[in-house]
Amino acid sequence: MHTDDMILISIDDHVIEPPDLFEGHVPERYRDAAPRVVHNENGTDVWVFQGEPVGAPMGLNAVASWPHEEYGWDPCGFAEIRPGAYDIHERVRDMNVNGVFQSMCFPTMAGFSARIFLDPPDRDLSLIMLKAYNDWHIDEWCGTYPGRFIPLGVVPLWDPVAGAEEVRRLAARGCRAISLPEAPHALGLPSFQTDHWDPLLAAMSDVGSVLCLHIGISHSTISLADGVPSDHRTILGQLVGSMLTATDILWGPLLRKFPSLKIALSEGGIGWMPFFFERIDRHQRIQSAWTKQDFGNKQPSDVLKSHILACFISDPAGLRLREQIGTDLIAWECDYPHSDSTWPRSPEDLMGEFVATGCTDDEIAKMTHRNVQRFFDYDAFSVIPREGASVGALRALAKDVDTRTTSRAEYRSRYAQAHA
After folding, report:
1. What are the angstrom distances between the C-alpha of 192 and each of 87, 189, 201?
2. What integer pLDDT is reported at residue 57 of this predicted model?
3. How far apart are CA 315 and CA 89, in angstroms?
4. Could you give the 3-state DSSP secondary structure of residue 382?
5. Which residues are paired to 47 by β-bridges?
6. Can you tell me the distance from the alpha carbon of 86 to that of 403, in angstroms, rounded to the nearest whole number?
7. What pLDDT, on a 0 to 100 scale, did the predictor assign at position 189?
8. C-alpha to C-alpha distance for 339 and 103, rounded to whole angstroms
9. Cross-strand bridge partners of residue 15
């Protein structure tokens, strides 16, 4: 397969929500209470809701095309980041130049699973804004360019019954992917070992929604020494967080209660999976006589494999072990506009890893798009035909897109000129 012939679907990207997100989606009487962007004197922007700053800082979450020397957690403003991070028209152009056909985008200001609506005291107001967020995501972010995005919804974490209602509302609108925290106990919520989430998960099972667990909040469950560098959080968060999440969903009651539930693991990589599968099967052989875990006539790894889809950005180790993982369990992610993203050379980098690890054309097609179609149960080409979805076809639409490295100062200058 030639690089230009690949069809790329990314099931983990991110949206930096624009300041006008809630306009037109919130009932008039609540308009002044909606989250808003406050521009600080130092040039940074922050979302404020119910009187408090909320949401993740843009920082490393929006560094596409920055020089690596400027990466960092320090906050920044909309004027300093690539417009494709928050402008839907520019996002599609950035997808085209990177050969990405379809994308599923996790929130930023709301947190990967909308935790900003959990903390404020007025939860009735939070629910109104959460629904407005979902409507914006479906109508404007995904709806502006039909056929280019997989809608992803969020639910009220404090009320699983209301969450179940939102799951059904979203499914009726064509959104059958729901983001939840991969380690809810890290937020002070009941864990997946309890029955707290049952109404929500039952609704997801009924309508066929995929449970999307993005590695993030589980970082806080890892106890690190004082003064460790930021590298610890980034590296261990993905590796340990992935295994923690997989262990929670496998050894608890979740999969026994909801045997049809599908779970997508985002930004956790795949290289850890063969060892994890071997370890849990060995544990069951040795320990099950006293732990009383019962997987019927199946091994734990077989049970887990029947429920999950995992994705990777760059993972040669995982690709070399793809047969032990199962090529039907693997999907790809771009992670735009985060610091781990391979944009704008994702096709070249990805094909380089496929070739180096001896992947066949059939395996490449599975991991780049066919597994996503099957797992999320939709026709990827219902709007845009296959011949218009390839890397080559999309890049032909984006020959004028500037992908050069651009500093924050240069973005500020361009922004000032555009808004003069």
Report:
1. 36, 9, 10
2. 66
3. 30
4. coil
5. 37, 54
6. 16
7. 95
8. 17
9. none
- Residue type (1 letter), 168: R
Question: Where do the DSSP E strands lie in 253-292?
Answer: 262-266
Averaged over 149-165, what is the pLDDT?
98
Angle at 311 between CA 310 and CA 315, to 5 degrees: 115
User: Which tens digits make up the pLDDT trace of 295-339?
Assistant: 989 999 999 999 999 999 999 999 999 999 999 999 999 999 999
**End-to-end CA gap in the chain:** 48
d(CA 218, CA 227): 19
Closest among 235, 113, 257, 135 to 181, alpha carbons compared: 113
Max Cα-Cα span within the chain: 72
The count of residues in the chain is 420
Cα torsion for 140, 144, 146, 152, to the nearest 10°?
A: -20
Residue spans of beta strands (DSSP E) within 323-367: 330-332
Angstrom distance (rounded) from CA 253 to CA 243: 17
Given the structure tokens 């490295």, which residue do they identify?
405
H/E stretch holding 346 reads helix 346-356
Q: Where are the alpha helices (DSSP H) in 292-340?
A: 300-305, 316-320, 322-325
Question: Quick one: tokens of 415?
Answer: 């922004």
CATH of 3-418, picked from 3.20.20.140, 1.10.3730.10, 3.40.50.2300, 2.60.120.10, is 3.20.20.140
Nearest one of 411, 152, 111 to 264, comparing CA atoms: 152
- Give Cβ neighbours of residue 381 (< 8 Å, ≥ 6 apart): 389
Structure tokens at 71: 């990466």
Domain extent listing, the chain: 3-418
Q: What pairs with residue 102 in β-bridges?
A: 9
Q: Which two tokens stand for residue 67?
A: 């020089």
Give the integer Cα–Cα distance in Å for 291 and 47: 47
Give me the pLDDT at residue 384, please.
98
Which residue type, as a one-letter code, is found at position 222? I
Residue from 325, 204, 323, 218 nearest 269 by CA: 325
Q: 199 Cβ partners below 8 Å, 6+ apart?
A: 160, 161, 163, 164
Q: Is 145 exposed, middle or buried (0-12, 13-18, 19+ CB in 10 A)?
A: middle
**Among residues 334, 305, 347, which one has the least CA distance to residue 322?**
305
Provide the whole-model pTM. Answer: 0.96
